[in-house]
Design brief:
- The protein is of the alpha+beta class.
- It is built from five helices and seven strands, in the order βαααβββαβαββ.
- The chain has one domain: Gcn5-related N-acetyltransferase (GNAT) (Aminopeptidase, 3-Layer(aba) Sandwich), CATH 3.40.630.30.
- A seven-stranded mixed β-sheet has the order 1-2-3-4-5-7-6, with helices on both faces.
- The two termini are about 30 Å apart.
Length: about 160
Amino acid sequence: MPTFRTARAADVPAIGKLHYDAWMETYRGLLSEDYLATLSPERMATIFARRAPANLYLLEDGGELSGFVLVGHGREADLPPRTGELCGIYLLAASQGQGHGKTLLDWAENRLRGLGYRRMIAWVLATNKKAIGFYEAMGMHPDGKTQFANLGGPAMEIRMVKEI
């Protein structure tokens, strides 16, 4: 039975591995193979080693990490005050379609609301139609803002938003 909990510092290596595995499942075919080959679980773990564990929530199934969500402050200058960011939400393919993504997103909204935020944004790869569909089903919508990310070449991202 799946369980959900706040992350601990000791979870960082497992989070890095899950993040890597989820990227390989999600972005194969959307990003270049050369770029994906530069990634590793250790490299991905460095992203989370600097984050506050209280803003990182984990899904475990059978004692194994199968998903996580990370929130923080919205980083763009054009954002209205009290805007938080869904910095990442990842769920292994084997755990998708069971309501776990919604549970993780609900936690993100509640965590941001508890920190005083009133809206939430997320940056999504414009070619990731599955993620865009998920966010739209959860009440988010594109706000017209785009940016390029260097993910082995220019990759367009769209910003999605939701009042929380």
